[in-house]
């Protein structure tokens, strides 16, 4: 994907957002799980404190004794991770699991009825979670403070958290994949209208539509309006430029005609050298003026133009066949009514007329005409059976509007005008020797069968 692609940017930002959200969710869930496990452990330890309380015999001869051992056997196994301590006055009794280790409790006991949750250092570098509680009991008819502390190894809590994270990571991975897929689908659906805009622009280029219009998503309508306004302004400017060119060219025709009259007067007075020089200059200038007039006639907007080459060639052949030479020529035209070109019919008529006149001028006895479709292009071929021309002269007569045969009348701008018309609609004109004769080929964009 291109770095400037909107789809790539949205995908990257979406993946980053999903990854960030899931990472925060994992941290939050881990913290919530820790708190939940700790609350459960504290509740369990508090329950064990209350289970130890009725086992204490305050009036025993040794001042404190447990009438029976706790149910959990881990309290009897040394350093098992389950411990308890009972203090009554100066008397201390511990579980056998502590062995000879004393828990470092705060000097001040909790207030009676209060529960303190402590983190203590246990035997063999164990880190313990402990519940410390105090009770007021009667001993020898005197109130005494009974302090009971129950602790458990917090490694069990860490193992539970790691097990939870181990189960959570695969679930989050699957969830991340589903969210990324959903994000990709959302991006594809959201960007689909952009493809519609591209299709509209393609339709403008192909001449199927004249403007983008309003039948678009709300968010892109302002852009479509601006493009349509630009197209309107362009058409108006092209129309003004076309009229200015036409006015300028017409303005030159009258002075040039007057110069030709002066040259004729000079001929009558015997000043042929000056008259010939004036005629040469005037002829060159008239050639340029006529070419600019022809260019000005080319339609400025061909977006909705459609022309049928076969029908136009049929009309031109009927006209040219009435000329003295045209009546003696074999006109071979194969019909192709389904081929339409994206060009103004008048422009195509002028271009094909120039090519057919040129072919008639140089042919021996036959002219072939074909119109066919090749992919998205409409191809028009005109071939005569004349002598042809050398390859180095082909581009010169197209670009400069020169006549190779100076004995034949005319301004010599026919092929140049054809080239201008074809290039104006984005087509191609090519000339090549066909042995015998010259083959002229025009390639134009095909037009839709229905008008926009």
UniProtKB/TrEMBL annotation:
Keywords noted in UniProt: Kinase, Membrane, Phosphoprotein, Transferase, Transmembrane, Transmembrane helix
Entry's transmembrane regions: 168-191
Coiled coil regions in record: none
Domain Histidine kinase positions: 247-448
SUPFAM superfamilies in alphabetical order: ATPase domain of HSP90 chaperone/DNA topoisomerase II/histidine kinase, Homodimeric domain of signal transducing histidine kinase
Catalysed reactions, as listed in the record: ATP + protein L-histidine = ADP + protein N-phospho-L-histidine
EC number(s) from the headed UniProt entry: 2.7.13.3
Cleavable signal peptide: none
Major localization listed first in the record, in broad terms: membrane
UniProt keyword DNA damage present: no
Gene Ontology molecular function: phosphorelay sensor kinase activity
Subcellular location: Membrane
Cellular component, GO, one term: plasma membrane
UniProt cross-references to PANTHER family, sorted A to Z: SENSOR HISTIDINE KINASE TRCS (PTHR45436:SF5), SENSOR HISTIDINE KINASE YKOH (PTHR45436)
Protein name (database record): histidine kinase
Organism annotation: Paracoccus sulfuroxidans
């Amino acid at each position: 994907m291109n770095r400037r692609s909107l789809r790539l940017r949205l995908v990257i930002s979406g993946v980053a957002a999903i990854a960030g959200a899931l990472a925060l969710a994992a941290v939050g869930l881990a913290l919530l799980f820790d708190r939940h496990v700790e609350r459960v452990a504290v509740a369990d330890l508090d329950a064990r404190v209350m289970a130890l309380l009725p086992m204490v015999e305050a009036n025993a001869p040794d001042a404190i004794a447990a009438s029976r051992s706790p149910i959990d056997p881990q309290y009897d196994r040394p350093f098992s991770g389950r411990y308890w301590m009972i203090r009554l006055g100066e008397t201390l009794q511990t579980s056998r699991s502590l062995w000879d280790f004393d828990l470092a409790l705060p000097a001040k006991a909790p207030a009676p009825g209060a529960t303190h949750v402590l983190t203590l250092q246990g035997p063999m570098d164990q880190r313990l979670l402990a519940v410390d509680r105090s009770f007021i009991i009667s001993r020898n008819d005197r109130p005494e403070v009974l302090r009971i502390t129950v602790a458990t190894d917090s490694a069990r809590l860490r193992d539970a958290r790691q097990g939870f994270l181990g189960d959570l990571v695969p679930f989050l991975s699957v969830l991340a994949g589903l969210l990324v897929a959903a994000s990709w689908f959302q991006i594809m659906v959201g960007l689909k209208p952009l493809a519609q805009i591209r299709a509209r622009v393609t339709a403008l280029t192909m001449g199927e539509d004249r403007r983008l219009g309003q039948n678009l998503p709300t968010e892109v309508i302002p852009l479509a309006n601006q493009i349509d306004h630009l197209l309107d302004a362009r058409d108006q400017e092209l129309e003004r430029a076309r009229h200015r060119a036409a006015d300028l060219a017409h303005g030159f025709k009258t002075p040039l005609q007057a110069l030709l009259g002066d040259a004729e007067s000079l001929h009558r007075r015997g000043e042929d050298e000056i008259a010939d020089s004036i005629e040469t200059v005037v002829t060159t200038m008239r050639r340029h003026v006529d070419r600019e007039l022809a260019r000005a006639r080319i339609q400025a907007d061909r977006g909705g133009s459609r022309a049928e080459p076969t029908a136009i060639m049929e009309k031109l052949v009927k006209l040219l066949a009435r000329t003295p030479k045209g009546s003696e020529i074999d006109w071979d035209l194969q019909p192709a009514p389904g081929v339409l070109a994206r060009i103004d019919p008048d422009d195509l008529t002028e271009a094909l007329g120039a090519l057919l006149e040129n072919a008639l001028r140089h042919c021996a006895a036959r002219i072939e005409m074909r119109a066919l479709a090749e992919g998205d292009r409409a191809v028009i071929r005109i071939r005569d059976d004349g002598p042809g021309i050398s390859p180095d002269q082909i581009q010169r007569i197209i670009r400069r509007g020169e006549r190779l045969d100076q004995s034949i009348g005319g301004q010599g701008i026919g092929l140049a005008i054809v080239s201008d018309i074809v290039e104006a609609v984005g087509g191609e004109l090519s000339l090549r020797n066909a042995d015998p004769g010259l083959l002229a080929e025009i390639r134009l964009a095909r037009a839709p069968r229905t008008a926009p």
